[in-house]
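Quiz preparation item.
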């Protein structure tokens, strides 16, 4: 696996490593940070290691977000390698509201464009509009909403689906989430 390293004005984006376990624990154990993420918070260092092995290690487009002065992970940004190219991010709460996720996301988007990825999608819980604000800030456009019985947390969620097309297919809309769920609609008050 190649070890891509991206630098921005304030950040280093790099692969997560074995010696990042404490940082992984700090990020993924926080209940508030993980409220809108699709997994339960990790409870201890052993769960953090399992989380690293399963979700972070050797993923092509999964980057630790590090402040340049520390090179210590404070968040992550990723794009899935499947046809959704689902884009996601999280940040420790003491770094919220500083434009860090937008800065990191824009850098990863440039890499994805260079690699020829045609688009990215992203979804956020209707109750987490700040995530939608990030999506808009990085150029994504709202496409539709759908209701899902969210797993593994097992409660109903209305997700808003955003997309950013990188190629000339401006009107392309990824339909898989819409097609998987009976209840889908366009919200007009966003």
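Solution:
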């Amino acid at each position: 696996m190649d070890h891509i390293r991206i630098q921005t004005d304030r950040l280093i984006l790099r692969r997560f490593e074995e010696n990042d376990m404490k940082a992984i624990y700090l990020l993924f154990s926080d209940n508030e940070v993980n409220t809108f993420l699709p997994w339960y918070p990790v409870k201890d260092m052993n769960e953090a290691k399992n989380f690293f092995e399963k979700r972070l290690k050797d993923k092509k487009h999964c980057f630790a977000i590090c402040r340049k002065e520390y090179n210590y992970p404070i968040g992550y940004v990723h794009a899935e390698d499947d046809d959704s190219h689902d884009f996601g991010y999280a940040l420790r709460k003491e770094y919220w509201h500083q434009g860090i996720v937008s800065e990191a996301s824009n850098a990863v988007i440039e890499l994805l464009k260079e690699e020829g990825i045609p688009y990215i999608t992203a979804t956020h819980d209707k109750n987490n509009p700040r995530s939608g604000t990030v999506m808009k800030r990085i150029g994504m456009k709202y496409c539709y909403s759908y209701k899902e019985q969210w797993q593994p947390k097992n409660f109903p969620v209305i997700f808003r689906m955003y997309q950013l097309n990188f190629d000339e297919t401006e009107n392309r809309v990824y339909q898989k989430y819409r097609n998987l769920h009976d209840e889908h609609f366009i919200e007009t008050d966003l």
